[in-house]
Amino acid sequence: MSGTLTTLSADPVVGPLALIGGTAGVVTLVRRRLVTPARLLTVALTTLYGAAVLTLTLFPLQIATGDYANHASWIEKANIIPVLTIDVRTFMLNVLMIVPLGVLVPLLRRSCRWTTALGIGVTASAVIEVTQWLTNIFVSSGRTADVNDFVANGLGAVLGYWLLRGVTLVPSVAALATRCALHAESPLETARDAVDVH
């Protein structure tokens, strides 16, 4: 057989990306004079979460060429039929994977509404799915992009947002969330304001 078949682990890619992302977060805090232990914890948790999502969704990355490659057409390397093709277990795991993102969004962004969390969740899903699809087309990664993941990830982000809103109704949790937010605005007030959907 001709061609190559190899596997790229997450470490050489995700490690440097996490270092860059974490450093950027710390530098942003320093420039805004917002450095506190709680905010540094938020940066660390966000960096670790992002690294975990990248690892789970894109790695290990199979690289196959020649006879080892999947020669199916590009359209067959994605599931483009929504709802009818949902695998319940995979759908629920995708929802759970993005819930932390919905929790983090109000801590990272000022004036965040549930629609903001939804948009960020869907955008993150688009980046992941397109990357899976392109790597499957060009290097036969074996990872199939799935339109149902957009629904699951959007739902997960919204659930995470409302979860934060719910727990911050407890004053001590609200105070902790305020200390952890990477801005001067309280995530609790932001979440409450978001009830008034225009």
Q: What does this molecule look like?
A:
- The structure is a single chain.
- 64% of the residues lie in helices and 6% in strands.
- The protein is mainly α.
- It has one domain (5-193).
- The strands form two sheets. It has a two-stranded antiparallel ribbon with strand order 1-2. A two-stranded parallel sheet has the order 3-4.
- Helix 2 (37-58) runs antiparallel to helix 3.
- The N and C termini lie far apart (61 Å).
Write the layout of secondary structure elements.
Layout lengths: L4 E4 L2 H21 L5 H22 L2 E4 L13 E2 L8 H21 L5 H26 L5 E2 L1 H20 L3 H10 L6 H7 L5
Parallel strand pairs: 3-4
Antiparallel strand pairs: 1-2
Key terms for this structure?
single chain, 198 residues, mainly alpha, two-stranded antiparallel ribbon, two-stranded parallel sheet, 7 helices, 4 strands, 6% strand
